[in-house]
Amino acid sequence: MKIGYIKPNFLNEKRVGLLPQHLPFCSPEDERRFEASYGENLEIPNEAYGESSGYSRESLFAWADVIYCIKVPQLQDYPYFRENQTLVGWIHPFGASGRHFRKYCAEPKNLQLFDVTNRISIRVTQGKTETLNIPGDITYRNSILAGYASMMQAILLRGGITQNDRVAVFGSGNVAYGVLKYLAHKGIEPVLRRRSNIALMQQEFKYYDIFINTVEIAQGDAPIVTFKMLDSMKSKGWIIDAAADTGRAIQGTRATKIEDPIYQDEHGHTFYVVDNSPSLLYRESSEAVSEGYAQHFWSKPMSYWHSDFCIAPLSINYV
Predict the structure, then answer these.
(1) Closest Cα partner for 262 from 185, 175, 187, 158?
(2) Cβ neighbours of residue 161 under 8 Å, at least 6 residues apart?
(3) Which of 43, 175, 276, 304 is most buried, judged by most C-beta within 10 A?
(4) Pairing mode, if any, of strands 191-193 and 167-170?
């Protein structure tokens, strides 16, 4: 099949989804072409991708069976997609930005979506959602960077963090590890909470100066932080959603962007919900994403991913 690699036009997204050094992992059964200046954010010349580089964005949409973009394409790309094309990337089709793409582009044009993530990777076809046979943690270093980068930017905007601040971290995965790395660097020992002691966290919430979420919840699950809990929080409290689980893990939140990363509610609480914070550390993140995708997705031909052989024995439905 023919695969077109395009640069993300997601605001302030600087990561490069496939690096030249990882091309040897990719299946030779597929033909690959790259948009002109695909690696420019990392000073990678077109020549590094060989003769398959230097194509215009429009020509790749017209040529390719499969489009790969590290983040969900934005509105200006919707007209370029052809009927029955395939899109691979961090689409998050049931998240805030992904829902818009799914409703106004993917469903009208019958696109097949491969949301290949660090947690659970899925294939969405005509409303049917299937779990892919891809191990978790394929880009775990990017998840660690998400935690670290979110803290780095949020705490800088807050004006720092002190030993007197009551800080709580919810979760225990890779994102949480990144958060804890940052806090350890600052000499901060946070309160650690998870699902097993969520009742205790709910009781303590009104005492926190900074609450950091590091987990995503499933569609329809009860939020970790409710409106009632937010009402009880200190008026100058900060909510940092390092998992960027917009509107779900923390009830009512909205996504923010790197260039405008925080907002306040009527109670004076400050929210940080940047949904691509690893792009702040885009050199490190590009390495993690490119290697993970190359070894666990591009190493198999697209014919495999379009077959039933790629489906995990127990699929989940997000709808």
Answers:
(1) 158
(2) 155, 167, 183, 186, 188, 210
(3) 175
(4) parallel
Asked whether residue 27 falls in the same domain as residue 124, the answer is yes
Average pLDDT over residues 202-231: 94
Q: Does any domain span residue 317?
A: no
Residue 219 has a pLDDT of 77
132 lies in the same domain as 153: no
Domain that holds residue 19: 2-138+282-310
List the structure tokens of 290: 């490119």
For residue 20, give Cα distances in angstroms to 25, 42, 80, 185, 300. 10, 11, 26, 33, 17
Round to the nearest angstrom and report the end-to-end CA distance of the chain: 29
Residue 318 banded pLDDT, cuts 50, 70, 90:
very low
- What strand order describes the sheet that includes 167-170? 191-193, 167-170, 210-213, 238-241, 270-272, 262-264
Residue 315 inside a domain? The answer is no
Distances (CA, A) of 154 to 157, 211, 239, 272: 5, 12, 9, 7
Pairing of strands 122-125, 86-90: unpaired
> Is 102 found in the same domain as 17?
yes
Can you give the pTM of this predicted structure? 0.91
Within a domain: 319: no
Rounded CA separation 216/148 (Å): 17
Exposure of 214 in the CB half-sphere (CA atoms within 13 A): 27
Are 204 and 211 in contact by the 8 Å Cβ rule? The answer is: no
